[in-house]
Amino acid sequence: MKNLIKAFIFIIILIIIICVLNRVFSPVGSSEGGWYVAGAMRDIYKQQKNSIDVLYVGDSNVYTGISPLEIYNNIGVTGFSASTPQQDIIGSYYFIKGFFKRQNPKVVMLETGEFFTLRENFTELGMRSEIDYMNSGFDKLDILNDKCLNLTFAEKLSYLFPVIRFHDRYQRLTEFDIRKLVQNAEISYKGYLYEFKTEKYKNKSKNNYKEYKKYEEEHKKKDIEKLDLKIPEYIDEKIDLLIKLCKEKNSELVLITMPVTDDRAIEKHEVIKEYAKQKGLKYVDFNMEIEDPINWETDTQDKGDHLNIRGAEKVGRYISKYLSENFDLENKKEKPEYKKWNESLQAYNERKKEDNV
């Protein structure tokens, strides 16, 4: 019996050590801000069961541009931004699938930033941002066995145990690798990465409501087939699976496009708008449909790549209005079981006040 107890204790200690080493040695979250995103994704599993009304899913434009607490402040609707850098449709599909095991969101908003990314353009770091911080159970096994990824056994093993792949990083570890171990769930703002700083976009962006209305007048007869923008087949397959999954869970899938400075934003809008129509999906483009457009001199944190808190406020106001007009979602602010949400909101608003937002 003593030997059995010793063996059991040894195995438990070994598992703990492996888990710690996996998190520290994984390159995911090893930069300023990156540790925060990695920790925020783990917060998905810490949310009270069936407490989330709306799930926001996509790449880095989501965790920098959609603040669930901003929307909760406006209309009392709970949400979570489940997004990682370069997140593709495969990662989004498995995040949503895993999310439904713990939550019952009435709306799933899927961001379209990677809708034109070819499978061969995936990067290992992008994939690891999705996979390394998933639940180590069936969520992770599901995505590793996806035929689209076509991973070898050795590659699958390296995703389950990142320390195998990155054991030689010990000479390049930084404070951010350690911070991944001690990240506090309460500072993630439900998946949103708060950023106050401003680095203005120096060029003039035509991707806004006013310019799009002009474009519509000039191109009343649009020929989508002539545009050299195609949604890859693997993305179309995953969208069909998501439509089916959301219907089974009594949820509605909505496509959204975050504010961007992309030169081809209007063309992409036309293609996605037609695609959404064919699939019977709602589609919202925050570039073309917000009458109070993003000011790329004040609302971006990094010269037009991502929004700061001012930009997230504008997106939050529009999403709040859109949800109120299109869905019957309950205001949770006065419900006692959402006391922690109100406490998080208070901390969030105090931070905004400190920054004069």
List the helices and strands and how they pair.
Layout: H1 2-25, H2 34-42, E1 54-58, H3 60-65, H4 68-75, E2 79-83, H5 89-99, E3 107-111, H6 124-131, H7 138-144, H8 153-160, H9 162-165, H10 175-182, H11 209-218, H12 233-248, E4 252-257, H13 265-279, E5 282-285, H14 309-326, H15 339-354
Parallel strand pairs: 1-2, 1-3, 3-4, 4-5
Helix pairs in contact: 1-10, 2-10, 4-14, 4-15, 5-7, 5-12
What report would you give on this structure?
There is one protein chain. The protein is of the alpha/beta class and 357 residues long. The chain has a single domain, classed as SGNH hydrolase (Rossmann fold). Helix content is 47%, strand content 7%. The chain has a five-stranded parallel β-sheet with strand order 2-1-3-4-5, with helices on both faces. Helix 13 links the parallel strand 4 and strand 5. The termini are far apart. The model has no long low-confidence stretch (mean pLDDT 84).
Summarize, please.
The chain has helices spanning 2-25, 34-42, 60-65, 68-75, 89-99, 124-131, 138-144, 153-160, 162-165, 175-182, 209-218, 233-248, 265-279, 309-326, 339-354; strands at 54-58, 79-83, 107-111, 252-257, 282-285.
Radius of gyration: 21 Å
Strand composition percent: 5-15%
Number of DSSP-assigned strands: 5
Structural class: alpha/beta
CATH topology: Rossmann fold
CATH superfamily: SGNH hydrolase
Q: CATH top level? A: Alpha Beta
Mean pLDDT across all amino acids: 84
CATH architecture: 3-Layer(aba) Sandwich
Shape: globular
H/E order of the elements?
Answer: HHEHHEHEHHHHHHHEHEHH
Strand order of the largest sheet: 2-1-3-4-5
- Tally of individual domains: 1
Distance between the termini: 63 Å
* Largest sheet descriptor: 5 strands, parallel
- Low-confidence stretches at least 5 residues in length (pLDDT < 50)? none
The count of helical stretches stands at: 15
- The amount of helix comes to 40-55%
